[in-house]
């Protein structure tokens, strides 16, 4: 068995991305195989990238008012604390409020000192900083005083904790594209070791400036060239015509809680977090390794007390990059060996694009939804699989029972992570 001292369950979830605003819409979009990838409404200046999965036509106040079941007092406090916040902070607040409501933390509260908060992601305000830099170069004296707070990642932490009166442990974690999983693992440890009873983990949106767009493009990490005239075909995880990741905007939040706290508050758990693994490759570059990815999966299994044969489904990292996809499949085959052909495999990025810092969180939410509703979502554009023995989901969703699932996230700089989740009590999304 693993190192768990207390069981850790999931009692709330929130999400926003290119195909969904909220859990019910995300569930419907996953089952339908809806793609959010298209031509960018606001392509980055000076950069030859025109394809992505944006959160389009989103208005913060309308979004806040759409969350049912929040008190007027909480709504007013939210507006007072975040109305002038940068876009990434507002999106984080929005996904956190969704999860807070699902977990019934306003009507069935936990002690503020026993609630923790983890923000997953780093360099979260790059586009905001880029825009302010232009103003600063013209008129330094007109730089807003609030910039001193807004440029730091901890702005997410402070704003959400103020709105929700969170007074337990809190911090930000960065792990490139593995940030979401790392945030979940660290948040779960706070719960398992008894440091908090409840912990919100928020995967923050990556609001890229033109400089980040150019950097990803220059390193050859981005796709969208071969299918430049048909964006819906551009993200192709595990297909032989894959050529790079497609950027996606998104944020997601999970409420982690000890099973004792959930029982005490009288709330349902939609899933149980069993364990996770984080491993470094001792590599500063963007190339992944089979050894590191396999080790992260093995550690997640060991901490969970789960055998390879018990995994029903893998939510793969699956970015649609040739080296990344090939390496992940080799690592999966190394870990699961003869059981590989019986495990469903898909990549949510084929629908949402690569949400970068929030990718692991978004995919954890998608995993819980699929376990709850008994299906696996499609792998869009999978026409010529890179492996003939893996059980990739096809172009349509498939009904199937999922009890235990693994979700992988790997990041530049040799950061490997994997988590294991177990199906919880049946819940109707609201």
From TrEMBL:
Entry-linked SMART domains: PKS_KS
The UniProt record lists the keyword Transferase: yes
Gene3D superfamilies attached to this UniProt entry: 3.40.47.10
UniProtKB keywords: Transferase
Location of the Ketosynthase family 3 (KS3) domain: 5-423
UniProt xrefs under Pfam families: ketoacyl-synt, Ketoacyl-synt_C
Family the UniProt entry places it in: Belongs to the thiolase-like superfamily. Beta-ketoacyl-ACP synthases family.
Protein name: Malonyl-ACP decarboxylase
UniProt organism field: Paenibacillus harenae
């Amino acid at each position: 068995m693993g190192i768990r001292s207390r069981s850790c369950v999931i009692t709330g979830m929130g999400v926003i991305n290119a195909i969904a605003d909220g859990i019910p819409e995300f569930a419907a979009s996953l089952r339908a195989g809806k793609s959010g990838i298209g031509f960018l409404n606001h392509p980055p200046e000076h950069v030859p990238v025109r394809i992505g999965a944006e959160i389009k036509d989103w208005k913060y106040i309308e979004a806040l008012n759409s969350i049912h079941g929040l008190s007027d007092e909480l709504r007013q406090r939210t507006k007072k604390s975040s109305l002038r916040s940068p876009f990434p902070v507002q999106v984080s607040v929005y996904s956190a409020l969704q999860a807070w409501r699902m977990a019934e933390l306003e009507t069935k509260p936990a002690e503020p000192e026993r609630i923790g908060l983890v923000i997953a992601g780093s360099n979260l305000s790059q586009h905001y900083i880029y825009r302010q830099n232009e103003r600063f170069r013209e008129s330094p004296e007109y730089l807003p005083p609030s910039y001193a707070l807004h440029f730091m990642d901890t702005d997410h932490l402070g704003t959400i904790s103020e709105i929700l009166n969170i007074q337990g442990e809190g911090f930000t974690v960065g792990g490139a594209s593995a940030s979401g999983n790392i945030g979940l693992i660290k948040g779960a440890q706070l719960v398992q070791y008894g440091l908090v009873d409840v912990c919100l983990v928020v995967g923050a949106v990556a609001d890229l400036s033109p400089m980040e767009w150019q950097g990803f493009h220059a390193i050859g990490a981005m796709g969208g060239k071969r299918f430049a005239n048909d964006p819906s075909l551009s993200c192709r995880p595990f297909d032989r015509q894959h050529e790079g990741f497609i950027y996606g905007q998104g944020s997601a939040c999970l409420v982690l809680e000890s099973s004792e706290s959930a029982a005490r508050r009288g709330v349902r758990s939609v899933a149980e977090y069993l364990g996770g693994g984080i491993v470094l490759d001792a590599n500063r570059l963007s190339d992944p390794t089979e050894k590191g990815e396999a080790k992260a999966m093995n550690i997640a299994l060991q901490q969970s007390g789960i055998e390879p044969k018990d995994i029903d489904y893998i939510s793969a990292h699956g970015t649609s990059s040739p080296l990344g996809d090939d390496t992940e499949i080799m690592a999966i085959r190394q870990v699961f060996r003869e059981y590989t052909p019986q495990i469903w495999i898909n990549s949510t990025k084929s629908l949402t694009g690569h949400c970068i810092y929030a990718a692991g969180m978004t995919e954890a939410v998608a995993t819980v939804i699929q376990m709850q509703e008994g299906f696996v979502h499609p792998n869009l554009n999978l026409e010529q699989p890179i492996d003939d023995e893996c059980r990739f989901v096809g172009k349509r969703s498939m009904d199937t029972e999922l009890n235990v699932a693994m979700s992988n996230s790997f990041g530049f700089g040799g950061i490997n992570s994997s988590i294991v989740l177990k199906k919880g009590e049946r819940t109707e999304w609201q």
